[in-house]
Design a protein that fits this description.
rod-shaped, 2 domains, 7-stranded mixed β-sheet, Deoxyribonuclease I, Chain A
């Protein structure tokens, strides 16, 4: 029996004696005596020595009047704090509530109540709580740093580049009755070639890309990616060129919802021989934080009506800084097609670096490309290099051009080569630019545009027609470029 009164306990302690008519029910009534625990038999010092929460509650319960409050306030604060040093905050809240209720019951003033409560919660308890909070914060930071370090190790371990001078496998898309099985490249014949950066199916008109200063990292959704790729496949099928160069074709990617874009494109481009050159295979990138770019694999694709008999993938030099993790495994492919006069039509599909303003890297990439082109040219072959050069191909660079629209250095072109766009007779055919800025959604009135896509040709390849096709950037941030050429 817990007793808080100050007077001695006088009530009967034996249970049976407290029952009326107990003799009638004597055989069924338990016979025991109460053990009285009298609060005031314990001194404050004894309760403090016990150092637990129950003892603290007993100390509170001894407060019956203003004198008791005064005695309580004389108790050493450090010992009271020791009694609740490891008490969970929720239990401490209950203890404080009990104490406040007792103070109100005996008519203590607000100051007395506040001072009583502070003996167990302020200031030491607050310092203890802050220490615990700081420990938790430090622990969380350590965990975050460990996770970040592990992720950095994963990214660098997963990063790789394909070896240089890889031979590419030549395949053929589904049959198309409009194609002749014995399609040949003949000197004097006129042929059409198209280059098209399809932007992994994400860059519709309302799209902006995070690496250009925009918002998005993925396509809008799987359906929109598939619709865009199918739309661009339909454009190629409608134009029906003899050769097609595609860039940024995702084979599998977080950003493109794991759509196999090559398989989709091949539903439209039938009867062609083709080869693919992988130029991106990233580990999972948690950047940007609001829409991580994820893990992605993409490629360059070269299509030809005539049979491709010789191929090679060349690895371009790239920056060795941290930026290489978000850049592509830059490369170009060489597809060689026999001509009837014993020479070869050598088609280069290229996508040079965009992110990074290093003149050294730009020049190194072009120097390597030129070396192979000159080697083919000196053998008497025909050379066409097309794709996304990530350089402004027009001679007039325009005003207020951003840094990424670096003018193509025509002065570096090897002897015997020229930019195909320079031989265009009707300037209206190239008035439309092949690429738009992806910093914001496309706005015809305000969005910066530039021609990054096109062709370099050797002087034994005559440009008969050239057009920057205007599809209004409806399906990609690039529009296709079409050229008709004649082999001398």
């Amino acid at each position: 029996m817990y007793y808080e009164g100050k007077a001695p306990w006088t009530a009967e302690r034996r249970f049976q004696t407290r029952i009326s008519h107990r003799k009638l029910f004597q055989d069924w009534i338990p016979d025991f005596a109460y053990e009285v625990v009298r609060l005031h038999d314990y001194s404050n010092e004894e309760l403090l020595a016990r150092g637990d929460e129950i003892s603290l509650i007993m100390l509170f319960n001894k407060i019956q009047d203003a004198v008791d409050i005064s005695e309580f306030l004389k108790l050493p604060g450090e010992k009271l704090n020791d009694m609740v040093r490891d008490t969970p905050e929720v239990i401490l809240d209950v203890i404080v509530s009990v104490m406040e209720s007792l103070c109100i019951k005996i008519g203590a003033t607000e100051d007395e109540t506040r001072e009583c409560v502070s003996r167990v919660r302020e200031p030491d308890r607050r310092r203890i709580t802050v220490k615990k909070a700081l420990k938790r914060i430090v622990f969380i930071l350590i965990v975050v740093l460990i996770i970040f370090a592990a992720y950095v190790v994963y990214v660098f371990k997963a990063y790789y580049r394909l070896p240089d001078k890889l031979t590419l496998e030549v395949k053929r898309t589904g049959e198309n009755n409009s194609f002749k099985e014995d399609f040949r490249v003949v000197p004097g014949g006129a042929y059409f070639i198209m280059t098209y950066n399809i932007g992994f199916g994400a860059y519709q008109k309302d799209y902006s890309f995070f690496m250009d200063g925009g918002k998005s990292s993925w396509g809008k959704d799987k359906e929109s990616v598939m619709a865009a790729v199918c739309g661009m496949g339909d454009i190629v099928s409608t134009v029906n060129p003899d050769f097609v160069l595609l860039q940024e074709v995702d084979l599998d990617g977080t950003r493109s919802y794991h759509v196999d874009e090559l398989e989709l494109i091949n539903q439209f481009i039938k009867g062609y021989y083709y080869d693919i050159a992988q130029d991106y295979d990233s580990p999972f990138l948690f950047f940007p934080p609001w829409e991580p770019h994820g893990a992605n694999k993409s490629c360059l694709v070269t299509y030809s009506r005539a049979e491709i008999t010789d191929t090679m993938r060349r690895s371009l030099p790239i920056s060795e800084s941290f930026s290489k993790l978000v850049d592509l495994d830059r490369c170009y492919s060489i597809s060689r097609i026999p001509a009837e006069n014993g020479k070869q039509l050598c088609i280069y599909n290229v996508h040079t670096s965009a992110y990074g303003g290093s003149d050294e890297i730009r020049q190194a990439q072009l120097s390597m490309l030129y070396e192979d082109m000159v080697s083919d040219y000196k053998k008497g072959n025909y050379v066409i290099c097309g794709g996304d050069f990530n350089h402004n191909l027009k001679e007039d660079g325009g005003e207020n051009a951003p840094e990424w629209a670096y003018p193509f250095p025509r002065e570096t072109l090897p002897e015997g080569f020229q930019m195909a766009i320079d031989g265009v007779r009707g300037k209206e055919d190239i008035s439309h630019n092949s690429c738009r800025s992806a910093e914001t959604p496309y706005d015809e009135a305000t969005t910066y545009t530039v021609t990054l896509d096109g062709f370099i040709v050797s002087d034994n390849v005559r440009v008969n027609y050239y057009q920057n096709m205007d599809w209004g950037y409806e399906l990609s941030d690039h529009d296709p470029v079409l050229m008709q050429f004649i082999l001398d």
